[in-house]
Amino acid sequence: GDQVEQSPSALSLHEGTSSALRCNFTTTTRSVQWFRQNSRGSLINLFYLASGTKENGRLKSAFDSKELYSTLHIRDAQLEDSGTYFCAAASSSFSKLVFGQGTSLSVVP
Amino acid sequence: EAAVTQSPRNKVAVTGGKVTLSCNQTNNHNNMYWYRQDTGHGLRLIHYSYGAGSTEKGDIPDGYKASRPSQENFSLILELATPSQTSVYFCASGDVGGTEQFFGPGTRLTVL
To answer: Distance between CA B106 and CA B8 in Å, rounded?
Structure first.
């Protein structure tokens, strides 16, 4: 079945540093969404991409539908960026989302 | 204000009991979804709907039913709850033809 491989599974960053998260898709993906799950469990929409790149503040995401991957770049990490980040791929069947396993990000002083 | 709401936010049920989780959306989206999230995992699709009166099976439908009585409301029903159904349940809505989904705050269900 459809799979989304997300990496790394866990990441620790010092404040002010930058890093990237990645999702690889095993099948054709129409679009990708990125979420952050906060300490209360809420899923916060970060990006929706059908192609190309989007940027919002210190976050930037890219989606390459041909090469079957997406990335989320976090620049100048802040303590409030801590949480679990999920990517989710929209499959060809009825827009359902297939989620990756998540990246647990910890930003430390 | 929140466009996708869920009730209850927390629920404790007994094994064999009936549980109904409710979802309401004010996005005027045709599509609605129920997912569950287990510790350390991403979300998995249980049921979905593409309009009032329709329900479809997702990837893990066993033990669950769904009901879509109106555009705004989508319920998930556990007729005979089991401890394996202890989880956090998320409802979402999305546009027809589009794939961006918007999620509710989740319901934490514990089956004892």
So the answer is: 9
